[in-house]
Write a structure and sequence with these properties.
By secondary structure, the chain is an all-alpha fold. 45% of the residues lie in helices and 0% in strands.
Length: 239
């Protein structure tokens, strides 16, 4: 337990019941106690932004004014900078785009205005790029079509404008090509007829026009063949 006699807040906080040894204490090496202290005494947080203990600085950063947050922009601890990423005004987030900590950059990617996200589109961490792909305007996702990570490309395939999906017809990942087959405009499905994956061809059979279905009724896979026949029957019934 901390020594209250040497605490600078002994007179103005302890005696007024605004801190409690072992429970609400800024001198403790306990994040919970420090959190409770600043929750009760937010006006003292600014005085701890230069503290030697990283957790004390990180918790204090939650309570200081936004105007003072930039004083911590170069803090050596990533937990402190993560707090900044959550709290900084949006127009100051560009300062953290190149932060060495992935979680900091992910938070930046989650908060930046969508039109500014291209600054993170080439980030070296796939999770950061995935956040970018989720939020970037769909019409500007072209640069991420050939991303090295399958999860990023899958996100792109789910959001890319339909008329641009032809650029992903030959992706090496089966699941991505299946997504393309689900979303691409029906008149472009013929380009996938020779896909080696039966699941891609099945997606085609579920959406294609009769001229393509007439090809798929001869497909080597029985499920694809049956789906094409069923669709043809439905089409003929509607006609």
């Amino acid at each position: 337990m901390s020594d209250c006699a040497t605490c600078p807040h002994h007179a103005d906080r302890l005696e007024k019941g605004r801190c409690k040894p072992g429970d609400t204490c800024v001198q403790a090496m306990s994040g919970r106690q420090i959190e409770r202290f600043f929750r009760e005494n937010p006006d003292l947080a600014q005085g701890y932004t230069g503290d030697d203990f990283w957790e004390r600085r990180a918790i204090a950063a939650r309570y200081i004014s936004q105007q003072r947050l930039l004083e911590l922009i170069d803090d050596p601890d990533e937990v402190v900078r993560r707090v900044l990423a959550y709290r900084l005004p949006v127009d100051e987030l560009y300062r953290l785009i190149g932060d060495i900590d992935r979680e900091v950059r992910i938070t930046v990617a989650d908060r930046l205005p969508a039109e500014q996200l291209e600054a993170l589109a080439n980030d070296n961490d796939y999770l950061v790029r995935k956040y970018v792909a989720r939020r970037m305007p769909a019409g500007r996702l072209f640069r991420m079509i050939c991303d090295s990570d399958r999860e990023v490309r899958m996100t792109v395939a789910r959001r890319l404008p339909e008329e641009s999906l032809g650029l992903m017809l030959h992706d090496v990942e089966v699941e991505i090509r299946r997504t393309v087959a689900e979303r691409i405009q029906p008149d472009a499905l013929a380009a996938l007829l020779d896909d080696p994956d039966w699941g891609v061809r099945l997606k085609i059979a579920e959406r294609a026009a009769p001229d393509i279905l007439n090809v798929l009724v001869h497909d080597p896979d029985p499920d694809v063949k049956e789906a094409a026949r069923q669709r043809l029957r439905e089409t003929q019934t509607h006609d």
